[in-house]
Amino acid sequence: MTSNALREVRVVGTGLIPFGKFPDQTLAEIAWPAVREAILESGVKPKEIGGVFCGTALGGMLAGQRIMKTLGISGMPIINVENACSSSSSALSLGWLSVASGQHDVVVVVGAEKLTKFGGGTLPLEREDWEVNQGMVMPALYAMRARRYMHEYGLTETQLAEVAVKAHEHGALNPNAQIKKRVSLDEVMAARPVTEPFTLWHCCPTGDGAAAVVLASADVARRLEGKDVRIAASEVTSGLYTDHFRDMTWPELTARGARGAFEMAGIGPEDVDVAEIHDAFTIAELMYYEAFGFCGRGEAYGLLKSGATSLGGSIPVNPSGGLLSRGHPIGATGVAQAVEVTRQLEGRAGAHQVEGAKVGVTHATGGGIAGLDHGACSIHVFAR
Amino acid sequence: MTADTDLLKLINPALVEAAASGPRLLGGACRACGARSFPRAAVCTDCLSIDVETLALPSEGRLYSYSVVHQAPKGWDVPYVLGYVDLPDGLRVLAHIAAPPAAIAIDQQVRLALGVVGTDAAGAPLSTYTFVPA
Ligand SMILES: [Zn+2]
Q: Where is the ChsH2 C-terminal OB-fold domain (chain B) (predicted)?
């Protein structure tokens, strides 16, 4: 989408609950504190909220209404969005467009998910999908990508495990992370296998969570004061279908989305100060370094090893701990990333702050579906 | 492959048939443009024709990648090996690879077989097409 006729949109409030397992709470009970926090932080009055966009993949009907009525906020259009792991980042894009287009001056975007209602194990996938009926599970899809990548580029299992070590070094600094502990390379390697070459530590934990942002026009933001983070690009795309050969070492969906988002923001990968990307499994982080252009193809491990993507490096990736450490309640992830990057750009990320960050990227992609790289991908660029 | 497998419940009978010469994967070929599909497409994804005939696919292919799956929903016999097999006509097929992990390698030639891969809700064996090292 071209941005010529569109208004500037700023993030004026953020809310996030620490991710975890809350089997005894309803989805609305999990989510309302994040929405309340975002509204109170923003300083907007509830009656100023012109629309609500709620992303959840498995939260059931009318999740947005169930959450918002708990706060007594109702009557405005509430749109519920399902797009697998990109549910709330897709909701964010719709919320951005509604403000950018002039439809609304203030909107709330919320992402919420309660995965504990399914018990444990891998995520329930759509049984109508023929690959799922032949035994496909998400960790196996990523594991096959990993195996091929290792074959083509000589990446070893030990090197791949270092991604998990780095994620938890970051997550240990984040009070909102689901897993707040460091893990050693030996622990990653010795954990029980899930889908080889992945052990448990190569996989993001399942759990529950919620996050919310308040978006506003620049006019409203100026009145609120101190709200300087704008959305410089908002991109949603879907995978390209083929039932023929696909290069599984190249996430074409993310690469396409990243190109579009960078073009819209008028920046390149070298301009990014901090990125929250979709590291659902260790290999994903490495492949997305390449898809975003942070390094060339086959060079991702070198970038990781150099320290560039760790806190203190030139392009810290997932300072929050990412999906591997913060957790991945799927529909909540996109907005949680937006909260994280907004706070980074505002200099209030605490122990995992990226000093001086001015440009940040969020990236949520996923959905296991036969014939597509992934079902959906949503990328946002934030700047101040 | 033998009479025994005729008695087994197939996960998706539309994807495979047991011929006298051995199992055959069933895909589709568009009569309008020739595009091939697996599973057989109800509508051709190249030209939108609905005139897609059933076509037996090649029985050998190359293993693009694989994973040994240890954690899966109830009903699957874990661990199992899942892989993508590239057929000579360009189609890619997700399949169970019925071989010990030590005997499996990327880019190896594999051939079609039938095998038991799990059980249904009543505990009866479930079978499907698989690939084994050629
Ligand atoms: Zn056709």
A: 57-113
